[in-house]
């Protein structure tokens, strides 16, 4: 898409640093420079305000990644694009198939209503097989300790983005992306695939709710 749009040497392309190394790599392969902007803390997608803050006269495009079933604010980004003369290209994560989507939504609603001790994604019930919660930190690796404890109770879980791209050796940038870094430190993906049984859902709730003490402030 970048090459077809005429993006190349000397151009800058704004991308998220929260995951999707293949997007930044595509920018490099096109001969352009990836520029990282911060994300919206609710959707984990590029923040239009953050994009506006890093736009320059060399900005040729923005690559929007729709994440965890959430949609980026493309209307606001297209408005910025028209104002500043850059393209808005969309990239969707490989997501769940539509088979069982109604079941996943039901599971998401069930978990949203019963989980305590973690910050749930809310009532929007996105179409995704990654149910991403936040385990807020307080100076300790709470999310990692939480994940280990949940796994020990028989619940599969994983960290969706371990290190933001701007903190990796290949794409290191001395930039301030607080929401991106906070999301990388706090997010944890719990399973909501359609094969889950009611007992497995109850195990997820029981395991997570029993660990609420990990979220207490450290004195």
Task: Explain the overall architecture.
InterPro entries: DegT/StrS_aminotransferase, PyrdxlP-dep_Trfase, PyrdxlP-dep_Trfase_major, PyrdxlP-dep_Trfase_small. Keywords: Aminotransferase, Pyridoxal phosphate, Transferase. Belongs to the DegT/DnrJ/EryC1 family. L-glutamine:2-deoxy-scyllo-inosose/scyllo-inosose aminotransferase subfamily. It holds the Pfam family DegT_DnrJ_EryC1. The structure is a single chain. The chain has 219 residues and is an alpha/beta fold. It folds into two domains: 12-92, Type I PLP-dependent aspartate aminotransferase-like (Major domain) (Aspartate Aminotransferase, domain 2, 3-Layer(aba) Sandwich); 101-215, Alpha-Beta Complex (Aspartate Aminotransferase, domain 1). It has helices at 21-29, 48-54, 74-84, 101-114, 142-152, 178-186, 198-209, and strands spanning 12-16, 33-37, 59-66, 87-92, 130-134, 187-191. Strands 2-1-3-4 form a four-stranded parallel sheet, sandwiched between helices. Strands 5-6 form a two-stranded antiparallel ribbon. The longest helix has 14 residues, at 101-114. The chain is elongated, with a radius of gyration of 19 Å.
What is the topology?
Layout: E1 12-16, H1 21-29, E2 33-37, H2 48-54, E3 59-66, H3 74-84, E4 87-92, H4 101-114, E5 130-134, H5 142-152, H6 178-186, E6 187-191, H7 198-209
Parallel strand pairs: 1-2, 1-3, 3-4
Antiparallel strand pairs: 5-6
Number of domains: 2
Strand segment count: 6
Spatial strand arrangement across the major sheet: 2-1-3-4
CATH topology of the largest domain: Aspartate Aminotransferase, domain 1
Q: Mean of residue pLDDT?
A: 89
Question: Topology as H/E string?
Answer: EHEHEHEHEHHEH
Large-scale geometry: elongated
What do we call the CATH homologous superfamily of the largest domain? Answer: Aspartate Aminotransferase, domain 1
Helix residue percentage = 25-40%
Secondary structure tally, helices = 7
CATH class of the largest domain: Alpha Beta
Percent of residues in β-strands: 15-25%
Radius of gyration: 19 Å
> Biggest sheet, open or closed, and with what strands and sense?
4 strands, parallel
How far apart, in Å, are the first and last alpha carbons?
51 Å
Question: What is the name of the CATH architecture of the largest domain?
Answer: Alpha-Beta Complex
- Derived from helix and strand composition plus strand pairing, the structural class reads alpha/beta
Uncertain parts: 215-219
């Amino acid at each position: 898409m970048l090459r077809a749009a005429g993006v190349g040497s000397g151009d800058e392309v704004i991308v998220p640093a929260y995951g999707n190394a293949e997007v930044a790599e595509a920018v490099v392969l096109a001969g352009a420079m990836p520029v990282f902007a911060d994300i919206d803390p609710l959707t984990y997608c590029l923040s239009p305000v953050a994009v506006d803050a890093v736009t320059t006269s060399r900005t040729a495009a923005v690559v929007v990644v729709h994440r965890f079933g959430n949609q980026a604010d493309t209307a606001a980004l297209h408005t910025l694009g028209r104002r500043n003369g850059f393209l808005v290209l969309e990239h969707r994560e490989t997501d769940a198939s539509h088979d069982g989507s109604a079941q996943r939504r039901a599971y998401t609603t069930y978990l949203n209503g019963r989980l305590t001790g973690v910050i749930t994604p809310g009532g929007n019930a996105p179409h995704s097989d990654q149910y991403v919660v936040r385990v807020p930190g307080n100076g300790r690796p709470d999310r990692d300790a939480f994940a280990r404890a949940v796994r020990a109770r028989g619940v599969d879980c994983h960290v969706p983005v371990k290190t933001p791209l701007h903190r990796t050796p290949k794409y290191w940038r001395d930039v301030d992306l607080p929401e991106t870094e906070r999301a990388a430190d706090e997010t944890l993906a719990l399973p909501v695939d359609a094969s889950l049984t009611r007992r497995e859902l109850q195990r997820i709730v029981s395991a997570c709710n029993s660990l609420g003490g990990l979220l207490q402030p450290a004195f």
